[in-house]
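so i finally got all the pieces together for this one. its two components total, 229 residues if u count the protein bits. some of the lines might not be protein, just check the labels. i wanna see the whole assembly predicted at once instead of chain by chain like last time, that was a mess tbh
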Amino acid sequence: DQQVKQNSPSLSVQEGRISILNCDYTNSMFDYFLWYKKYPAEGPTFLISISSIKDKNEDGRFTVFLNKSAKHLSLHIVPSQPGDSAVYFCAVVNAGGTSYGKLTFGQGTILTVHP
Amino acid sequence: EAGVTQSPTHLIKTRGQQATLRCSPISGHTSVYWYQQALGLGLQFLLWYDEGEERNRGNFPPRFSGRQFPNYSSELNVNALELEDSALYLCASSESGTLNEKLFFGSGTQLSVL
């Protein structure tokens, strides 16, 4: 049972344009939603997060949107840069019960930004 | 400040053997997490240690085990290795009790089971 899905395995974008990465989840009890970025041969690095009580969080070129009714999370990167080329993982956490401390990750989306 | 360090970088074992992977968290972090990333899959949660105790584990068989030492470093042991255990094993650390679960990851140990 996959609780977090990133349905697009890859995304290709031109430099300067917007990149939109999407993530769907099934459990309405999730408390926090995060995005991580991973370069080859490196571990994932934290990018941005959003609490379930908000619908938008912005940090520089990165904005995360949360649509709780649709159980949908998206990451917008504007403007996209070649250095943004990486694998992007969405992750969710349920702060309560047996899931506490456990981040559940999506499968990842490979973003390629062309100069 | 040193990040999360993992050793070895690469590990080659044969089926049935045991593998031991090591992780040192960021100084001041008391929580250590282990994740498995098999080829083509996302990160699968394995184990969470905090203050020397196992706090949670994912849906993996008991031959996946580990421990956390008094200095908060951690070991992941995989017994009776199977071919499908070949994967990148990532360790992460965080400050204990942070609700938003911002994790800092190491670069991983690539385990190959032949």
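The domain at 5-109 of chain B is CATH 2.60.40.10 (Immunoglobulin-like).
The longest strand of chain B covers residues 43-50.
anyway lmk what u think
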